Amino acid sequence: MAIKIYNTLSKKKEEFVPIKEGEVGFYLCGPTVYDYFHIGNARAWVVFDVIRRYLEHRGFKVKFIVNMTDVDDKIINRANERGVYPGEIAEEYTKAFFEDCKRLKIKDATYYPKATEHIKEMQDLIALLQEKGYAYELDGDVYFEVGSFSEYGRLSGKKIDDLIAGYRVELDERKKDPLDFALWKSAKKGEISWDSPWGKGRPAWHIECSAMSMKYLGKDFDIHAGAEDLIFPHHENEIAQSKCANDGRFAHYWIHIGFLKINKEKMSKSLGNIYTAREILEEFSPESLRLFYMQKHYKSPIDFSKEGLSDAESAVGRLKRCYIKLNEILDKYTVNDDLTNINNKDVIQNFREEIIEAMDDDFNSAAAIGKVFDLVKLVNEKIEDESSIKNEIHLLKNAKELFDQINMFFDIIPLSYEKLYDSAKLVELLLNIRDELRKKKEYQLADKIRDEIEKLGYIIEDGSTGTRWMKK
Q1: pTM of the predicted model, to two decimals?
Q2: DSSP for 151-193, written as a single string
Q3: 34, 282 in Cβ contact below 8 A?
Q4: Sequence spans of domains, the chain
Q5: Is the model's pLDDT at 166 over the cut of 80?
Q6: In what order do the strands lie in the sheet with 221-227?
Q7: Residue 159 — very low, low, confident or very high, per pLDDT cuts 50/70/90?
Q8: Burial class, 15, CB count within 10 angstroms (exposed 0-12 / middle 13-18 / buried 19+)
Q9: Is the CATH code 3.40.50.620 the one for domain 4-128+207-282?
Q10: To the nearest whole percent, how much of the chain has pLDDT over 70?
Q11: What pLDDT score was predicted for residue 338?
């Protein structure tokens, strides 16, 4: 089955056909590094991490580019507030970005180009647009002439006449048209700046992504991605300046994720309901946050609440316990095809195909996650019936392999089986002592050992097959 992607540009699902067979050029609009990223930003980083990983799981070689906007009005304003150089702000929050991405288990991009390291490429692109008649200079500022690009508004579905009539645009009476947007900004007193053909200044935001995506992926590349609020004006402007410079070539597929609300309200500083990913990760596991995002299709709006995240944490716990039990069983038994129930040989393959089918359908993680937990239910049923385990061991082995494959792109199983059991020999010793105490009916001391182990961050489960434990 071919992968289908909803393309914001065409407003429909399209079969994914990469420019170069077996390879994918993928550009994601990265952070403006002036603060810690919030949970809405985190949704984008996690969603596109999963999509990138899934494409790799399907056999594609993915060149994944995430830019770092390290010169911008927000960075300059924050620097002025603190009385420091803008580069100090950018450096501080670039470091924080990588720290938080690591905690969220986000795989490193192929490249993280910084805007300040690509000023020459931006100036060359602006000069080319000016040479072709799509841009003009005004007192050291350079603007793109929106009226010169007939396709403007195609991505967002906005019409130029409506925009002029009702959309808030930057007011500058010098411009040919109120919709014309900046490519280069002349230097203001005290601001960071670079020499250019138009005098000292700095690049505007939109030109940064065009220049960096083209440098690392070429004039034609496969996927451009970002949050829904970037469709207009950022991505619309990117398309305009890039296609005019590249004779109609640029990204083929545009993917955008839906908005995130907090308890059904829009995130805003005035409401005091903005959570950074860093804050949330102090209370909840990265797997729970990843699962929380994956339980909704990426295009759907998502309502964030700590109650919803607690539910996701519990679901991660179910998955983790199932995975641990599965590994325990496989440690005890050897797969013997002669004992395998032939009626179950295709069951796991069916799950595998259904999960792939869901993800191939515009990366429908919600449907895929539903199948994952159907698999958890099946595995738990097989494990609980110890009398038939030998006949089901081939199925359980295949289930474990499927869990491992799923985790390659979702990454929602907290710890590998091996890491978990290599880490706490002392816990095993204490639990063995506790079992001996219980046999001697010394329950008070046995319960005290259990309580103290749980205080150290472990979950203890007593069952018919013995005591199991895991880290919270």
Answers
A1: 0.86
A2: TTTTTTT--HHHHHHHS-----TTSSSTT-EEEEEEPPTTS--
A3: no
A4: 4-128+207-282, 315-416, 424-471
A5: no
A6: 61-66, 23-28, 221-227, 251-257
A7: confident
A8: exposed
A9: yes
A10: 91
A11: 46
